[in-house]
# Entry
Amino acid sequence: SQQGEEDPQALSIQEGENATMNCSYKTSINNLQWYRQNSGRGLVHLILIRSNEREKHSGRLRVTLDTSKKSSSLLITASRAADTASYFCATELTGANNLFFGTGTRLTVIP
Amino acid sequence: KAGVTQTPRYLIKTRGQQVTLSCSPISGHRSVSWYQQTPGQGLQFLFEYFSETQRNKGNFPGRFSGRQFSNSRSEMNVSTLELGDSALYLCASSPGLAGGLSYEQYFGPGTRLTVT
# Structure
């Protein structure tokens, strides 16, 4: 499968703690994107990191990309209860015009 | 700008029937992609349209088809529905400039299809 694999599958933390999610993929990519989904609703784009970038920040989010290891991580700092959601990584493969989604990490932030 | 809209939001159909789902992209976006989300298979790419042309297609049977109109609105059709087609169908739009899709996608709220 070209889908990414994410770990952990589920993560439960206290409000204020940091959350780290990891994504691994199999083939060369143009870019990797992270999305959030609240309880069966549409996905919300968080960050896009291109294959020639190594790190990107957006507010409390930090994404890293290691193309040699074919892996990425998403760090959410100072988590809030509102961050409770499923988080997906998605890869745009070289030569393809669509996204391949990972299996997702279910994050629960306990108030 | 208004976001991506999908209609209907919920749908219940019987096995063997057909269904048409609609998606209106963000104004100015020319690329529309469709995804199926199920608990077992996760998020899977169905197809992508750009300027009324299908540019890419996922690994789904021919019962799944789509089209895009000149105003970039898109429809997908599923014929001869099976129980396994029950899913959340998500539409996403992006500017989709020629040469690739290196932009984030904006997703609609989805259509929840239940096949009985």
